[in-house]
């Protein structure tokens, strides 16, 4: 898209940051984080650590799920005053399981230019090492936290032929594997835990095997669960 399609406002840069290993950031992302007028981030302490690691000094403002409705119009006004803004999340690509979509949608509506500064995302990083088909896949984000809703969502996915990908937190992890086993059955599953971090682990097997393996361990860290689609 050419610049003339947009108003003469500042630019919103959607910048990917690492999911663990701080080296997983592009040179362009570092330059943009240095050059913009302001960085909007989920947790200022966390983003501050990243900036400190790269010796970048810039102003931060918080933009997260709990303040997005109040904060987005403020950030849009900032962009309309010809200032540039970088939007980052706590980890990975903004817009994937975080509130970035809300601001991006508002900015587009206001004819503000939105530029992607791509990088890491946990689900893609997990998919490419899973050994499951990568040609067609279906990213399902977090399953609903309420068990009945979660069951319903899984039932909707029963006949899905594409590789299924879910995000999960440590405290619901075993329960989710349980529900997956009951509803989707005994298929190949892959769990990618703590990708790019010190205790990175990829466990492959049938659902019951992978569940048994993790039941014997302390459940810690961040997880991506991938499952073979219906064969
Ligand atoms: N925006 C991020 C992305 O692009 O992947 C996702 C943010 S979402 C709030 C956090 C979830 O992503 C975690 O609960 C976990 O499921 C997954 N995740 C993030 N980092 C991960 C890592 N290093 N290893 C495995 N899963 C990770």
Would you write up a description of this structure?
With 231 residues, the chain is of the alpha/beta class. The protein has two domains: 11-117, Cobalt-precorrin-4 Transmethylase, domain 1 (3-Layer(aba) Sandwich), CATH 3.40.1010; 122-227, Methyltransferase, Cobalt-precorrin-4 Transmethylase, Domain 2, CATH 3.30.950. Helix content is 35%, strand content 21%. The protein has eight helices and ten strands. The strands form two sheets. It has a five-stranded parallel sheet with strand order 3-2-4-1-5, sandwiched between helices. Helix 3 packs across helix 4 (100-109), helix 6 (147-156) crosses helix 7 and helix 7 (173-184) packs antiparallel against helix 8 (207-215). The longest helix is centred in the first third of the chain and has 13 residues, at 68-80. It starts with 10 loop residues before the first strand and ends with a strand. S-adenosylmethionine (SAM) is lined by residues 19-20, 89, 91-93, 96-98, 121-123, 167-169, 192, 194-197, 222-224.
């Amino acid at each position: 898209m050419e610049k003339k399609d947009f108003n003469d406002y500042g630019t919103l840069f959607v910048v990917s940051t690492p999911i663990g290993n701080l080296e997983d950031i592009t040179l362009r992302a570092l330059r943009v984080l240095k050059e913009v007028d302001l960085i909007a981030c989920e947790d200022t302490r966390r983003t501050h650590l990243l900036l400190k690691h790269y010796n970048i000094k810039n102003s931060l403002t918080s933009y997260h799920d709990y303040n997005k409705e109040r904060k987005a119009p403020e950030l849009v006004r900032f962009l309309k005053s010809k200032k540039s803004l970088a939007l980052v999340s706590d980890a990975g690509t903004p817009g994937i399981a975080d509130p970035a979509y809300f601001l991006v949608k508002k900015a587009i509506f206001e004819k503000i230019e939105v530029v992607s500064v791509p990088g890491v995302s946990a689900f893609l990083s997990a998919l490419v090492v899973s050994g499951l088909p990568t040609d067609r896949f279906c990213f399902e984000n977090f399953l609903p936290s309420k068990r009945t809703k979660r069951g319903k969502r899984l039932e909707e996915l029963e006949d899905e032929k594409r590789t299924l990908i879910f995000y999960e937190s440590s405290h619901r992890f075993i329960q989710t594997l349980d529900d997956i086993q009951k509803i989707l059955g005994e298929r190949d599953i892959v769990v990618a835990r703590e990708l790019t971090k010190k205790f990175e682990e990829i466990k492959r097997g049938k659902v019951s095997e992978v569940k048994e393996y993790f039941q014997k361990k302390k459940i810690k860290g961040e997880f991506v669960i991938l499952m073979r689609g219906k064969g």
